[in-house]
Design goal:
By secondary structure, the chain is mostly helical. It contains eight helices and no strands. The radius of gyration is 15 Å and the shape is globular.
Length: 143
């Protein structure tokens, strides 16, 4: 039985979920609605520990929480780029961008494109777009 088929019973610690818990929740997001999560949960989970899991979820078009995972990818990338990669590794982000370009669909390709645009001009960082979901709600490629 895969995690997608198992019943998600909640987080042991929602502020610090494990990759397995996050993956199980992502395939049954109604089991613990986002509204019931701690404030700024998206910011809390968008770190190095869960980025690979979030990336895998964002790559999966059948994942019910795909848009949430993509939103977290924008937070992670924006945070890394705007801090000149003090917050997150440029190498790790570059690997994710390459994977998104090679294996992702249009949503993931747009994320990779937008990250590359921001990398060339970090002054274009806009908190609303990168951290509050603007680029996910109105999916588009930055010019």
């Amino acid at each position: 039985m895969s995690l997608q088929e198992s019943t998600f019973r909640g987080f042991a610690n929602p502020v610090d979920p494990s990759p397995a818990e996050l993956r199980a929740w992502a395939y049954q997001p109604d089991s613990v609605p986002l509204e019931s999560m701690p404030q700024d949960w998206d910011l809390l989970v968008s770190g190095d520990q869960l980025i690979t899991t979030l990336f895998d979820l964002a790559l999966d078009p059948s994942c019910p929480a795909r848009r949430f995972a993509l939103h977290c990818l924008y937070i992670y990338a924006g945070d890394g780029i705007r801090t000149r990669f003090r917050a997150h590794s440029k190498r790790r982000l570059s690997k994710l961008l390459k994977q998104a370009e090679q294996h992702g669909d249009e949503l993931m390709a747009s994320w990779a494109h937008n990250c590359r645009v921001l990398m060339t001009d970090p002054e274009r960082f806009d908190y609303h777009e990168w951290c509050e979901g603007g680029l996910v709600r109105q999916a588009r490629r930055l010019g």
